[in-house]
Design a protein that fits this description.
The protein has about 140 residues and is mainly α. The chain has 4 helices and no strands.
Amino acid sequence: MTAERTDVTTPDSDADHGAKTGFAFGISIVAAALIFVASLVAIFQGISAVAKDDLFVLGNEYVYKFDLTTWGWIHIVIGVVGVLVAGGLAVGADWARVAAVVIASVSIIAQFLWLPYYPLWAILIIALDLIVIWAVATWKPAEEY
């Protein structure tokens, strides 16, 4: 005997589905906004480094030391890619979910290596990137409900 699946919708199941869809949409917008802000900050951080601003203090020698201009261009590239990914997340593109996790992970690595130059800011951006990864990883598009 096989069980037949019936797709009976009730007001409670419709409301539950609508709430889940709305929550998923909200998470995607929050993730897009967070990655956009983190990427915009990375662009400004990179511009400041390329311009050899007095904001950054060069201290001890580190194993992973790059020229400040090189760090600036790394941050600019990560920032520009992040802004594009944020746009993809905002419109619900499937590729943007994976790209958001990848770009946030790359940003975490870059910020870790950037710690000697501007430690408090790097820690803040690492925390933002972790929130982005969490938000994108826990978000389920509407068709998965």
